[in-house]
Every structure is written in structure tokens, then in C-alpha cells.
Amino acid sequence: MNDKLRFNSLQMATLVVLRLLIGWHCLYEGIAKLMNPGWSAMGFLSESKWILSGLTHWIVTRGSLFHTVDFLNAWGLTAIGAGLILGLFSRPAAIAGTFLLLIYYACNPPMVGLEYSVPMEGAYVVVSKTLIEAVAMFVLVIFPTSQIFGLDLYVSRFKSKIIK
């Protein structure tokens, strides 16, 4: 592979826009959950029918653990979204976001033979918007756009001045 491969301004701008859009989506989802006192992951976790179903059903039956999952879900989405939008600690935010989205996918994937009581948005087979967003989030892990446009650029400059 060519180590001198560089991306042009349009390519980098597109990756920055991808980071901002995914960040907005996560931030919005997190804040919406925080602002809604009736929100709970109970229905989502109870519907799990795939490889994490045993774990999710166990979590639902453990009151304090279940409330911790709700808290971490809402605040995690908010922090991931803020990190991506601000470009601050965006790589750890993208890693956490990828992991979280893959957990969502593994809980309720659109697999043939799995039926849910609540209709899923769209008609998917294997590939869903959640899986696509997880892969797009992983692209943000690989391409550190916050070093081009984001607060991570200033953090790295500050670190380099301290190290000198």
C-alpha cells in the first residue's frame, strides 16, 4: 500500500461532515433520552432475541443494574455525540460509539426468523441503519478528522508544546 496516499480537501471535508452528522445523531438521541423522564431501554432490551438475549433479559430483571444501563446509555450517547461534534477526544468517542451501535445491533438484528412485537423501521434483512452507522462510525476511528477540524488539533498542539 502506498504510504504517501493523501486525501484531497473534498475527501477530508466529507469525512468531517460524516463525523458531524453522526455526532449530531448521537447527541440528539442522548439528549432526547435524558429529557424524557419516561424513557427506558426496557422495551428494547426485553425484545432482544439474538446472541445477547440472555444478557439483556438478565439485565432487565436486575433493578439497579437496569437503571445503570439506562443512565450509561443516555449519557454515553450524549458524550459520544458531543465528542464527535466538537472533535474533542473524537477517536475514543468513535470507538465507544462503534461498540455501542454494535451492541444495539446484536440485541435486535434484522435477521430472518427473528420477529419482534414492535415493528422495526423499514424492511431490512441483515443490514440495518444501525449496522451502517456502526461501520461509518468505525471509519471515523480510522480517519482522525478532528486533527483537521476539531478541538483535538489544539489539544495535540498543546501536548507538543508541553513535551518540548
- What is the alpha-carbon Rg in Å? 18 Å
Which structural class should the secondary elements be placed in? mainly alpha
Shape: globular
Count of extended strands: 0
Uncertain runs:
none
Question: What percent of residues are in strands?
Answer: under 5%
Number of helices: 7
Helix content: 55-70%
Termini gap:
33 Å
Oligomer: single chain
Largest sheet: none
Whole-number count of domains: 1
- Succession of helices and strands: HHHHHHH
What would the average pLDDT be, to the nearest integer? Answer: 84
Report what the structure shows.
This protein is mainly alpha-helical and 164 residues long. It has one domain. 66% of the residues lie in helices and 0% in strands. It is built from 7 helices and no strands. It has helices at residues 9-35, 42-46, 53-60, 63-86, 90-107, 129-142, 151-163. α4 (63-86) packs across α5. The longest helix has 27 residues, at 9-35. The radius of gyration is 18 Å and the shape is globular.
Could you list some keywords that capture this structure?
single chain, 164 residues, mainly alpha, 7 helices, globular
In short:
The protein has 164 residues and is mainly α.
How are the SSEs placed, and which strands pair?
Elements: H1 9-35, H2 42-46, H3 53-60, H4 63-86, H5 90-107, H6 129-142, H7 151-163
Helix pairs in contact: 1-4, 1-6, 4-5, 5-6
